[in-house]
Amino acid sequence: MSENILTYFEQIKAQGLSIDITRGKPDAYQLDLANELLSMNVEPFDGDVDLRNYGEPFGIQDARILGSDLLSAPVDNVITGEQSSLMLTYQMILSKYLFAKSVPWKDIEAPKFICPVPGFDRHFRMLEDFGIEMITVPLVEDGVDLDVLSDALQTNSNVLGIICVPRHSNPSGEVYSDENINELFKIGRHYSEDFLFLFDHAYLVHDFLPTKDQTAVWKLAEQNSTTNQTVVVTSFSKVTFGGGGLSFMAAASDNLDLIKRIRGSMVICPDKVNQKRHTKFFKDLSAVKDHMKKHADLIRPKFEIAYKALEKLDKDVGEYSQPTGGYFITFKSQKPIASKIVELCKEAGVLLTPAGATHPYGKDPKNNTLRIAPTFISEKELEIAMDVFITAAQIAHNQG
Ligand SMILES: Cc1ncc(COP(=O)(O)O)c(C=O)c1O
Q1: How far apart are CA 135 and CA 328, in angstroms?
Q2: Which CATH architecture has domain 42-282?
Q3: Dihedral of CA 265/243/358/362: which sign?
């Protein structure tokens, strides 16, 4: 190994850096884009509805219509909730666990779920909470690897469903093709009429480069007669304010009844004042899309900075994703050195999402996948963090 790189690394360490690129959060300039919401006046009444009081458990009409436009689902199938789509997903799973019509999931022996990998750590945590075993299926360029999925379903009983991020998948950025989703529906429905297709559309409107066409998931579910088995969620967490936006869910028949039932035990109604603010801020879907173009202009340069560093690494060290939207870059090392890279970055004062977080149970069998979240920090800090990253990757590779 060249002495130079080790000396350089010691010099970086001596700088006492403290940079955190663990989570995909919007930066303050992105949040500023929605500052109007902070001071927006809302009238107490929206038609007959007193926004200040309990009522409208499924969201105010305007907010449900906006959700219906976002998800291309009929308004009666859409619930607009509080700020977190993850919570809606959790509530959906909880309701299936307790009350699913045929058999509540809690009474199913050794329940399992399909998790495309790499994936989102909080999905894995949620399924682990319910004691649901996670079966991994790799992602390919246009979605889930359907051959591996078919094999997994052939060899496993009691698989309850799949959870996936169909656009700008967290973290590797795949955009599922219509064909892939259609096949997914066919395979899952053939396996069981209770098989649940959970689509987390967290990055539905988060393109920062031209992105391939995708028919709305709900429309595809209609065409495949799988709406009864399909649930789609999205939110404004990365549209307006992280943890201060709105969440949306489309569901049908039993699933819609179940989510309404479980939410009835938990929240009397969502924050209608915030819903009204949002529907004043975004009159319609095209206003959301215009707003997201401003986000894109702020995000794109951050990804370009990250690529500029990553392209200095030899392909032998590893390769990285170049998504057209979303919040993450995935780095895949050739050698099993992901945890070593994280360790070295930490020594140099740069915090990365832990190695393994992209896989269920925190275990990446190849120890080669890392998630880089370039959006939150400033461009200057990002340049420094990426320099640390590529230096650490090179050292880990040389030593590995
Ligand atoms: C795939 C995915 N789903 C859900 C969330 C969280 O969404 P929310 O804030 O609406 O709960 C995130 C945030 O990082 C995410 O990446």
Answers
A1: 23
A2: 3-Layer(aba) Sandwich (3.40)
A3: negative
Helix ranges restricted to H, the chain: 3-14, 28-32, 61-71, 85-99, 121-129, 146-155, 178-191, 217-223, 253-264, 272-281, 285-310, 338-347, 379-399
Ligand 1 test: best mutation among 123, 163, 200, most atoms within 8 Å of CB? 200
* Cα radius of gyration (the chain): 22
89 lines ligand 1 (CB under 6 A): no
Classify 118 in phi/psi space as left (phi over 0), alpha (psi -120 to 50) or beta. Answer: beta
> Cα of 358 to ligand 1 centre, how many Å?
14
Q: For atom 6 of ligand 1, which residue has the closest CA? A: 86
Select from 287, 249, 290, 312 the least CA-distant residue to 80: 249
- pLDDT tens-digit profile of 222-240? 999 999 999 999 999 999 9
Does the domain made of 3-24+289-399 have the CATH classification 3.90.1150.10?
A: yes
For the chain, give the percent of residues with pLDDT over 70: 99
Which pLDDT score, from 0 to 100, does residue 83 have? 95
Quick one: tokens of 52? 């200040």
Nearest to 215 by CA among 253, 244, 175: 175
Residue 153 is predicted with a pLDDT of 98
Hey, where are the domains in the chain?
3-24+289-399, 42-282
Q: Is 86 in the pocket of ligand 1 (CB under 6 A)?
A: yes
AA identity, residue 14: A
Q: Is 165 in the pocket of ligand 1 (CB under 6 A)?
A: yes
Give me the pLDDT at residue 2, please: 66
Determine the pLDDT at residue 23.
87
Verify whether ligand 1 is closer than 6 Å to residue 21 (CB atom).
Answer: no
Burial class (CB in 10 A: 0-12, 13-18, 19+), 28: exposed
Q: Given the CA of residue 87, which atom of ligand 1 is nearest to it?
A: 11
CA of 10 to the centre of ligand 1 (A): 37
3-state SS class at 234 = strand
Residue stretches of the chain with pLDDT short of 50: none
Give nearest CA residue, ligand 1 atom 3. Answer: 202
